[in-house]
Amino acid sequence: MAIRQGLLALLSQGPRYGYQLRAEFEASTGAAWPLNIGQVYTTLSRMERDGLVSPGEQDEQGRVVYSITEAGRAEMERWFGTPVVQSDRPRDELVIKLAMAVTAAADVRPIIQAQRTATMRTLQEFVRAKRANVESPAQRLVLDSMIFQAEAEQRWLDHCEAVLTATAEPPTP
What we know:
This protein is mostly helical.
């Protein structure tokens, strides 16, 4: 997800200043994607340049409140209406690591086992976090997604192990 579109979505609910946007972004995503405040202000500056937001006057504390423009609202609606395709997602480092390990003829079993252990630990943390402090439907959706991704990774690791075991066995006469 682009920070830009996420900030536009928040601004569609009303004017906000940078620190509010950062806090609400992290609250909405369950802090799964922490933002640096510098990222927020750099993105706001670019969105202002592109006509997607307009700055208001500074308040007594020196904070500038930003509002979404019609062009910004159109950009947000376009984002909401466009499916995310697999090629738009970042590369999966684990897939690359296992492919390179197989190519290098490394023993992949300890790599898979170490990843399985780490993924299980992460999965348990997500489940605990969901039980402990899910405050909003947005946070629940984010945590559910992370849980499902960790479960899928576990299944994929099982599949990798099965494929590599099957290909390593000598053919039967």
